[in-house]
From TrEMBL:
The keyword Iron-sulfur does not apply. This is FtsK domain-containing protein. Residues 499-519 are annotated as: Disordered. Keywords: Membrane, Transmembrane, Transmembrane helix. SUPFAM superfamilies: P-loop containing nucleoside triphosphate hydrolases. The chain crosses the membrane at residues 67-97. It comes from Actinacidiphila epipremni. The keyword Transmembrane helix applies. InterPro entries: P-loop_NTPase. Residues 500-515 have a biased composition (Pro residues).
């Protein structure tokens, strides 16, 4: 039985697409065939324009003699043998010459100044990439950069990209040898910028790329993410395979930006976050940004060890179960979080054994945000109480299976006071501030691929999710709306994300007084007296 052809609507190439491609091919072919005609027509238009401008510049007393001379020339051409044909050929030739493409061709090679910079960089690499026993050295004192540098780009007279070869005997597997070459290239290519080094050990190639500064005009907002996804900040366009629309700048201009997305939940490989940084680098703003995004799909519990009221704007909001900053309140809150995690585990286990769906209260995401837990540990030790960080052990160990995520932020000089359970189970890491590369490697577990930034704004640092690469990071601006120094635009942006009554317009938003910290909801958890 013969097969019947599929209907045209089910074909992989609809007729409309084929017709569009056919029309585009016909237009390209017609353009190629009619290119001489188009060139001559463009030249004649330029000739007419030139003649019109010349006639306008000619004084009136000279226009009559000019017309008489032109008429005499026409009469002579008509009387000459083959005169009209020669005149037409001359006009067409001049039109073709005037209608030619006058786009200047790019220079074939680097200029004199660029050649000098490349040669100086080549000579500086000779002591590091040469060997006296090499019979045909790629890098020699009397050599040239042509064979070593295969590609390069300059922007404004400064080196923007360089692709170089190095000999196979160079020890590119040793961190010290690579660090020496990277330090030299950083110094010779120009300080004040960030550079990324991509080593290709298999083919003995190294690519140096000057990175543009990360955008600092993105404010906290509703990002286009799925449930369980949190935007920690934004990075380089070629570092991630995803972009999200954002509103940036004072006028809220829309554009696409590449985000660093942290995924939580049962299928996440790094369900808990640890953010470290120096004072004033933006770790509290990062937790505040995470809290604003978490309230869209779940509940939030906040423990503020600094006790400065940085999270007062979240107190009493729908979805915020508690905002505690005292040792007693923090211990009660974290103890409830541990019992809640155990309750959810039992509910999930029973639902699976009975073959029924899990209850909604056991599936709703719960976020435990702890800022400066080492300060609470010191206060608890002074009062003879147990360390509150130990209460995070159960949510950190078993929270992934029941949609409980923990995010901890602290200062970098207090890492020795962090509990072992916090360090061991926080696989998503963020480090903010101006730090030495060895400090970044100690926190993230891998060396950064870029040189340190010359200027480090608040919220600038590096992020690593699990075993992924180290990414540059710029946290969205999420200031405290109750701070008097917060700009009206940023205050309005943050208040607009808070659940509850919408705030007034930006120009009318005052700096409201911070309300009293909210206590734990009695219908959800036990009271502090029952827990102590």
């Amino acid at each position: 039985m013969a097969r019947r052809p599929l209907p045209s609507i089910l074909s992989s190439r609809p007729a409309l697409v084929r017709g569009r491609d056919l029309a585009r091919s016909a237009a390209d072919g017609a353009t190629d065939v009619l290119h001489p005609v188009l060139t001559i027509a463009r030249g004649m238009r330029r000739q007419v324009a030139w003649a019109g401008s010349w006639w306008g510049r000619t004084p009136k007393d000279r226009r009559g003699p000019a017309l008489l001379l032109a008429a005499a020339g026409v009469v002579v051409l008509v009387m000459m043998p083959y005169g009209p044909l020669l005149a037409v050929a001359a006009v067409l030739a001049s039109a073709a010459w005037m209608g030619r493409d006058r786009t200047a061709s790019a220079p074939a090679g680097p200029g004199q100044a660029e050649t000098a910079r490349l040669q100086a960089l080549y000579e500086a690499l000779v002591p590091y990439l040469s060997d006296p026993a090499d019979p045909a050295p790629l890098y020699a004192y009397d050599g040239s950069w042509d064979k070593a540098f295969t590609a390069y780009d300059f922007e404004g007279g400064r080196l923007a990209r360089l692709h170089l070869r190095y000999p196979a005997y160079f020890t590119d597997g040793e961190a010290d040898a690579r660090a020496r070459v990277e330090q030299l290239l950083h110094a010779k290519a120009g300080r004040g910028r960030e550079y990324r080094f991509d080593w290709n050990e298999e083919e003995n190639h190294l690519t140096l790329t000057a990175l543009p500064p990360l955008a600092t005009d993105i404010v906290a907002q509703r990002f286009v993410t799925a449930p369980g996804e949190t935007v920690l900040g934004f990075t380089d366009a070629d570092a991630v395979a995803r972009t999200v629309p954002v509103a940036a700048g004072e006028c809220g201009e829309g554009r696409d930006a590449p985000p660093v997305v942290w995924r939580t939940g049962a299928r996440s490989t790094e369900p808990h976050l640890l953010a470290l940084g120096q004072p004033g680098t933006g770790t509290t703003s990062l937790l505040r940004c995470v809290a604003l995004q978490s309230l869209v799909h779940g509940d939030v519990v906040i423990v503020d060890g600094s006790g400065t009221g940085e999270y007062a704007c979240l107190a009493g909001r729908p979805g915020v179960l508690a905002v505690e900053d005292s040792v007693l309140g923090a211990a009660a809150t974290l103890e409830w979080a541990a019992h809640e995690t155990e309750r959810r585990l039992v509910a999930v286990n029973r639902a699976r054994q009975e073959g029924r769906p899990v209850e909604e209260d056991a599936r709703r995401p719960l976020w435990i945000l702890v800022d400066r837990p080492t300060s609470l540990s010191q206060l608890a030790l002074a009062e003879g109480r147990p360390d509150p960080q130990l209460l995070l052990d159960v949510p950190l160990r078993h929270g992934r299976a029941v949609n409980v995520a923990v995010a901890v932020a602290d200062q970098l000089d207090a890492t020795e006071s962090l509990a072992p359970c916090v360090v061991a189970h926080t696989r998503a890491r963020v480090v903010l501030g101006r730090l030495a590369p060895e400090h970044v490697e100690a926190v993230l577990g891998a060396a950064q691929r870029t040189t340190p930034a010359a200027e480090v704004p608040p919220g600038r640092g590096y992020a690593r999710l699990g075993t992924g690469p180290v990414l540059r990071l710029q946290v969205p601006a999420t200031p405290d709306p109750y701070d008097e120094e917060t700009s009206p635009a940023h205050r309005a942006a943050v208040l607009a994300l808070l659940p509850g009554t919408p705030p007034p317009p930006a120009e009318e938003v005052p700096a409201p007084a911070a309300p009293e910290p909210a206590s734990l909801r009695k219908d959800v958890i036990r009271t502090v007296a029952d827990l102590t």
